[in-house]
Amino acid sequence: MIYLDQAATSYPKPPEVGEAMCTALQKAGNSGRGGHFLSLEASRLVFDARLELAELFGAEDPSCIAFTANATESLNLALLGILRPGDHVITTESEHNSVLRPLYSLETAGVEVTIVKADRRGVVDFSRLGSHLRPNSRAMVITHASNVTGNVVPIDQVGAFCQEHGLILIVDAAQTAGWYPYNLHSSLIDILAFTGHKALYGPPGIGGIYVKPGSVVPRPLKTGGTGVQSFSKTQPSQMPEALEAGTLNVPGIAGLKAGVRYVSGLGLREIRRLEAELTGYFYQGVKEIPGVEVYGDFSTCDRCPIVSLNITSMESSLVSQLLADEYGVFTRSGAHCAPLMHGALGTGERGAVRFSFSHRNTKKELDTALQALLDLAKRPRRSSHG
User: Fold this and answer.
1) How many domains does the chain have?
2) Of the residues 224, 245, 266, the one at which a domain ends
3) Segments forming the whole domain that contains residue 110
4) Cβ neighbours of residue 285 under 8 Å, at least 6 residues apart?
């Protein structure tokens, strides 16, 4: 098996991730719910995981980070918890449905939404953001890197624009947490949504949200027990308890902590170097295959390790199926939950085949994938129906 679907979830996980989860199941209780050693062990584990994340992200302190199930929950928290009827929000065609669907829901409730277009490479022209401003503009929400093209947004430029015009900047870091060297303390990002199961090498079902001190804390999606201020009728207002009602996923947090330690130990500079080398190697090989169209902006090496493409003679779903069935190469085809990006790329009807890499992949694996694509591109035109 050659796993080239790392943008969906990282695989294989470092063995210490599973080991940490099993240990937590056996030796940790419910964080903040008791003074006995099992509860205290869980609380220590949760705090240590916040500390590891804060250090990796360059956050002000661990309390800036609340745990959620995934980036989708974090984005829902941010968008539904900040925007109100009459507000205006700016976003782009690069976004995942975890941004678009909450915004569509808010739009029906009276929030005004502007979606900035992308070109045929999936690139957004951020120099023209000022033309989209309105008197009621309140926030901008943006993916830091497209899960379809791997294009990376100039986040400092966007942050400066938001600061100049008093906008709250909400960043979807699903593809970049564990890859991009954030320094949130000095950045202009107000809210960062991340998931644990991708480049942080944690398990599914755990993620988080960073809220910059002094920025607006979103209204919680849920309220309930936090282990503190139990006699108050309202949810605590301070982070992280403001956004953490209910029992925390302690085994998931333990696995995430182990994943973050793995990433920190290897170092983001080395991870980015290895993945850029693999991405460039694959792109140079695939662009020479007749009948293959590659999507995205490859004029810069500052991009996530993603290459999406189509074989002109086949539907994307068939290509991905044949790659898996005949060559053992696992990819993802279709719309990737990013319909507007596919519309911009001209792949709205057929989608695309996405190859995504991690530093744990090898050039030998990529050679196999390239040969498979060369073989498939030579086959007579076929559809997924026959």
Assistant:
1) 2
2) 266
3) 15-266
4) 366, 367, 370
Q: Which amino acid is at 169?
A: L
| Amino acid of residue 93 | E
Q: Of 55, 79, 76, which Cα lies nearest the Cα of 182?
A: 55
Whether residues 95 and 113 share a domain: the answer is: yes
Residues contacting residue 183 through CB under 8 Å, at least 6 positions apart: 57, 58
Question: CB–CB of 352/288 below 8 Å?
Answer: no
The per-residue pLDDT string of the chain (386 residues; one tens digit each, 9 = 90 and over) reads: 999 999 999 999 999 999 999 999 999 877 767 778 788 888 899 999 999 999 999 999 999 999 999 999 999 999 999 999 999 999 999 999 999 999 999 999 999 999 999 999 999 999 999 999 999 999 999 999 999 999 999 999 999 999 999 999 999 999 999 999 999 999 999 999 999 999 999 999 999 999 999 999 999 888 887 777 778 878 878 889 889 988 899 999 999 999 999 999 999 999 999 999 999 999 999 999 999 999 999 998 889 999 999 999 899 999 999 999 999 999 999 999 999 999 999 999 999 999 999 999 999 999 999 999 999 999 876 555 44
Which CATH number belongs to the domain containing residue 323 in this structure? 3.90.1150.10
Q: Which tokens go with 202? A: 């944690």
Number of other CB atoms surrounding residue 312 within 10 Å: 11
Same domain (yes/no): 317, 241: no
Provide the 3-class DSSP secondary structure of residue 258.
helix
Coil, strand or helix: which one is 267?
coil
Backbone angles phi, psi at 101, to 5 degrees: -65, -40
Q: How far apart are CA 297 and CA 173, in angstroms?
A: 19
Asked which of 266, 288, 315 is the last residue of a domain, the reply is: 266
Give the pair of three-digit tokens for residue 316.
């994307």
Same domain, 35 and 117: yes
Looking at the domain assignment, is residue 384 inside a domain?
A: no
385 is a domain residue: no
Residue 32 belongs to some domain of the structure: yes
Beta bridge partners of 210: 65, 192
Q: What is the CATH number of the domain that holds 108?
A: 3.40.640.10
Q: Same domain for 249 and 271?
A: no
Taking a C-beta distance cutoff of 8 angstroms, is the pair 189, 171 a contact? yes
Tokens 């006699």 correspond to what residue?
Answer: 231
Query: Is 94 in the same domain as 151?
Result: yes
